[in-house]
Amino acid sequence: MTSPTALTIKEDDYSVHYDSDSNTVVFAGELQLSGMDDYASIMTLLDDVVQQEPTTLTLDLRQLEFLNSSGINMLLRLVIKVREKTGMQLIVKGSDRVSWQSRSLQNLKRLMPALELQIE
């Protein structure tokens, strides 16, 4: 099975893009969907990426201005899935200019101490 080079979900308020060349998922905009069911398409994209078992996976959240509690739950589930994969490194890039990131992203390290958190 050949994996696509890029996967993208684009809506009016947000976009999620995976580039397999750099093994990076870039989130942008404001993610404030109603609940986990509404996050299903993004979760499917992330699950597909994890199934490819890249050595390193980067989540670039620097352009994500807002993420509600259901979205944070989605990230927590992703971290748990990556933690279960032996040999997969997870890097999360955030911005100190986005207030929710400096507070919430630290919690990801509690689930996966080996996670590399880069707040710029």
Write structural notes for this entry.
With 120 residues, this protein is an alpha/beta fold. The protein has one domain: STAS domain (Transcription Regulator spoIIAA), CATH 3.30.750. It is built from four helices and six strands, in the order βββαβαβααβ. It has a six-stranded mixed beta sheet. α1 packs parallel to α2.
Please write the CATH class name: Alpha Beta
Cα shape: globular
If you consult CATH, what is the topology? Transcription Regulator spoIIAA
Q: What is the average of the pLDDT values?
A: 93
Q: Runs with pLDDT <50, length 5+?
A: 1-5
Across the major sheet, the strand order is: 1-2-3-4-5-6
- The share of residues in helices is 25-40%
* Number of individual domains: 1
Coarse structural class? alpha/beta
Q: How many H/I helical runs?
A: 4
Secondary-structure element order, N to C: EEEHEHEHHE
Q: Main beta sheet: strand number and arrangement?
A: 6 strands, mixed
Strand content: 25-35%
Note the topology:
Elements: E1 6-10, E2 14-19, E3 24-31, H1 40-51, E4 56-67, H2 69-84, E5 89-94, H3 99-104, H4 106-111, E6 116-119
Parallel strand pairs: 3-4, 4-5, 5-6
Antiparallel strand pairs: 1-2, 2-3
Helix pairs in contact: 1-2
Summarize the structure.
With 120 residues, the chain is α/β, with parallel strands linked by helices.
From the structure above, extract its key features.
disordered N terminus; globular; alpha/beta; Transcription Regulator spoIIAA; 120 residues; six-stranded mixed beta sheet
